[in-house]
Amino acid sequence: MLDATPDLMFGSVEYPSSMTLYLRDQRKVPYTKKFRISQEVKVNTSAGFWGSLGKDGQSIPITGSSNIKPATKPCATSDRSLGQVQIQVFPLDRTRAPIDIRHK
Q1: pLDDT for 66-94, tens place per residue?
Q2: How many angstroms separate the first and last alpha carbons of the chain?
Q3: Which of 1, 25, 27, 46 lies 20 to 30 angstroms, CA to CA, from 12?
Q4: In terms of C-beta density within 10 A (0-12 exposed, 13-18 middle, 19 or more buried), how is residue 64 classed?
């Protein structure tokens, strides 16, 4: 679903469980409502990546597409793009707290 990028690692895609509606005359029809497909995204933890962030961090685009087609309505367009999302990754603040306010 999401396009690969070297700075991000993607988990498996999680689909909702399907639902079936059983009618009185023993017919089974798919029953649908709004649903969400999710995919976990993890930021690269290598030293090379964190060293390349600089002081202001780095903006990483996430793009993807879908191959899901509506079952009841004809699709108006063949574009299945999910759009683009930008995430901003900032370097870790490694400066120590002043001695007066450190936990003891």
Answers
A1: 766 655 555 545 556 677 888 888 887 77
A2: 48
A3: 46
A4: middle
**Phi (first) and psi of residue 74, to 5 degrees:** -65, 145
Number of H-type helices and E-type strands within the chain:
1, 6
Contact 7, 43 (CB under 8 A): yes
Structure tokens at 49: 């990546």
Element (H, E) at 50: helix 47-51
The Cα 104–Cα 98 span in angstroms is: 12
